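Internal tracking record. Fields below are filled automatically when a chain is submitted to the structure queue. Please do not edit lines marked as system-generated. If the sequence contains nonstandard residues, flag them in the REMARKS field before resubmitting.
Queue: standard
Priority: normal
Entity type: single polypeptide chain
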Amino acid sequence: MGPTFYFIKSIGTHSISFSSKLYKQVRFGRSNNREQRKEKMQAKKTREEVEKINMIDTWLKKHSLIYVGATRHPFILSIRDGTVNLTSFKTWLGQDYIFVRAFVSFVASVLIKAWKESDDSGGDMEVLLGGMAALNDEIQWFKNEASKWGVQLSDIVPQKANKDYCRFLESLMSSEVKYTVAITAFWAIEAVYQQSFAHCLEDGTNTPSDLQVTCQRWGNDGFGQYCHSLKQIVNRRLAKALDDEIKKAEVALLDVLEHEVEFWNMSDGGA
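SYSTEM-GENERATED OUTPUT FOLLOWS
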């Protein structure tokens, strides 16, 4: 019985040793897999958080074709290289005067949304009030420029692209449209002009001297800083927004870019 018992004990010990080793391999293998999955999920989460913090830049890269189309339109490039048709410029001047008047109401609605939805930790109200105050000067500027160029503003009839754009602004004024979506559109409208006209002020351009004032109005460093402040507000809002709100904000950005392209087309002789 002794040897037999020893044999069984040996077998039993060997089995326990083997099973323990296999158990550890399986257990730690699964543990390593879990750690790897956890690391991947964390890395993905980190990337998503970074993208949300810089959502605007992510979108501009994603939609670079339409963004370039809006900020480097042939109408803008013709101003930059000095070949602009002055009739086209006068068309733009008259149509944009009509647009700005509608834009005032839109900005007022964004200000109200900010008052209701923003905690104002980033000074949203101050930034928006500064922009709104500048619109009074902008309307007067249009009147002065129209007089200089012989454009009768009272005779201007809004063209289709202009009416479509103004209707789009009106849709954003709805109480159902969240502040994050509206401020995204607001930033995009301002940023397109800033990027477009700043391009006409760069070294080596042939922008006509008569149009330098126009380009300076939106291409100056002060307006650029204002647009940067708006961009910071938008990125901060998007970083905290739910997925549905983010999707709507991205659509609003694309809508603005498309309307801007159509507005330039209209000014350049399109329908």
